[in-house]
Amino acid sequence: MNITMVLILSIYGIVRKPNLVKKLIALTILGDTANMFVIFIGYRLIYPVIPPVLPIIDQNRLIEFLEQAVDPLPQALVLTAVVIGLAVNCLIAFAIIQMYRLYGTVDVRKIFEKVFPEERV
Asked: Rounded to two decimals, what is the model's pTM?
């Protein structure tokens, strides 16, 4: 499946689905898709690809390293994004549980009707 197709499907799930749990799942897929996109940006398509570790500093090895090494910055950013995404997903899941406890449903439309009973959309 194409990465843009997954991105579009996850945005559709966030915008169009009224169930908060489905919105959380779509948000998780969106974050994972964005992380995969950043990994693809940082990967080199030349062969051989070497890890971004240079044990011996030498002029010839440095030139070879700069031409073939994978960029470590996207990897570090994705690692940080995964940790932050996990924390945000836990916070949102807790909020969904609390909304279910308060309103008895996770449907956004029904929650809106219970919070604002006098307004009609």
From this structure: 0.82
